[in-house]
């Protein structure tokens, strides 16, 4: 391990994280926000100061989001503060602690910072001011360990496990923020020559290039999937949606750490009532399987299944069962599953609805 004395990893750091209603940074809302300020104190442990806010987002919190972060609509309405007040305090607090010589550490910064920017414009009528450099451990990790394929997941828990970093209070904004800071420190030490000894300004600029390279590679993987799909099945009504998605990914990759609004995260969906008993044609099954395998592995299984349920006018339970029959892992977006895993999931699902 390289000596990282004198690197930014020995200095102060501000970490930031959000828990939200869903995954569209321009349209969904903040539920909790945390800012963790870490200041070195000589040879002793650093000073760690945490501020956390709970907002009433003003919209329903979907059950699948509640299942992740534990905050229901009822709890947010009863205990949360008005969203405008929370956003104003978060923005003002960041402006006070995030300076040109102090990095803001945010895991998947393009999501959290874009959402805060959108919320600031929505409630305060002003964009988020970038008052210092940004450090995104996810972006840095993807540069150091390029993503192999759709099954190569890089959730915070995955990255923490890879680097041997503690993750306490997963899916709480304060727990995730502190874990992101720990990953950043580990990166500065383990990869001192590549990362740790860069100036914060250099690191900020390089991450913009690394983000663009990653998004371009992701777009290329989707294009290869689309080419294979066209070779098997020809053009369909979904083809243009796939092409539009690839274009959006490429355009978004040109912007870091804030992304412009390029339209809804998901393509247009089928309309109509859910009908779990409607017949599945081979074409629909092929489309479902391809859609699942093209799903971002970082997306939560519940959200991904709900999206497909709306798209195919089925129930989420029907989507889950059909994915399992098609050799996909309904609990791991972007992945297939082997027979042993399929049998395990089948037993679990059957236990949810025991037969008399």
TrEMBL record:
Keyword check for Transferase: yes
Ranges for region Disordered: 257-279
Entry EC no(s): 2.7.7.7
Name of the protein in its database record: DNA polymerase-3 subunit epsilon
Keywords of this entry: Exonuclease, Hydrolase, Nuclease, Nucleotidyltransferase, Transferase
Native source organism of the sequence: Saccharothrix violaceirubra
Highest taxon listed in the record's lineage: Bacteria
Residues annotated as domain Exonuclease: 12-193
NCBIfam families: PRK07942.1
Enzyme class, first EC level, given as a word: transferase
GO molecular function: 3'-5' exonuclease activity; DNA-directed DNA polymerase activity; nucleic acid binding
InterPro entries tied to this protein: Ribonucl_H (IPR013520), RNaseH-like_sf (IPR012337), RNaseH_sf (IPR036397)
One cellular-component annotation, GO: cytosol
């Amino acid at each position: 391990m390289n000596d990282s004395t004198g690197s930014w990893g020995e200095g102060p750091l501000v970490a930031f994280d959000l828990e939200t209603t869903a995954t569209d940074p321009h349209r969904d809302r903040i539920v909790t926000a945390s800012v963790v300020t870490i200041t070195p104190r000589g040879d002793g442990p650093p000073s760690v100061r945490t501020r956390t806010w709970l907002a009433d987002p003003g919209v329903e919190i979907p059950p699948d989001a509640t299942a992740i972060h534990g905050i229901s609509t009822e709890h947010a309405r009863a205990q949360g503060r008005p969203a405008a007040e929370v956003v104003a305090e978060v923005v003002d607090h960041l402006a006070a602690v995030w300076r040109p010589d102090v990095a803001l550490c945010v895991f998947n910064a393009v999501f959290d910072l874009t959402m805060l920017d959108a919320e600031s414009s929505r409630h305060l009528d002003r964009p988020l001011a970038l008052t210092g450099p940004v450090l995104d451990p996810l972006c840095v990790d993807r540069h150091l360990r390029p993503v192999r394929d759709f099954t190569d997941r890089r959730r915070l828990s995955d990255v923490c496990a890879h680097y041997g970093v503690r993750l306490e209070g997963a899916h709480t904004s304060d727990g995730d923020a502190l874990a992101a800071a720990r990953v950043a420190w580990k990166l500065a030490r383990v990869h001192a020559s590549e990362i740790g000894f860069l100036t914060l300004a250099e690191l900020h600029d390089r991450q913009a290039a690394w983000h663009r390279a990653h998004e371009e590679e992701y777009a290329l993987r989707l294009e290869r999937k689309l080419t294979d799909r066209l070779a098997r099945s020809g053009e369909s009504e979904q083809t243009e949606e796939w092409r539009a998605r690839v274009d959006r990914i490429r355009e978004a990759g040109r912007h870091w750490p804030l992304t412009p609004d390029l339209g809804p995260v998901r393509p247009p969906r089928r309309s109509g009532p859910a009908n779990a008993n409607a017949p599945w044609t081979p074409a629909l099954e092929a489309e479902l399987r391809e859609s699942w395998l093209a799903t971002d592995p970082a997306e939560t299984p519940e959200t991904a299944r709900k999206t497909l349920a709306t798209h195919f006018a089925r129930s989420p339970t029907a989507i889950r069962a059909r994915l399992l029959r098609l050799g996909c892992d309904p609990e791991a977006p972007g992945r297939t599953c082997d027979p042993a895993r399929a049998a395990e999931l089948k037993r679990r699902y059957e236990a949810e609805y025991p037969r008399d």
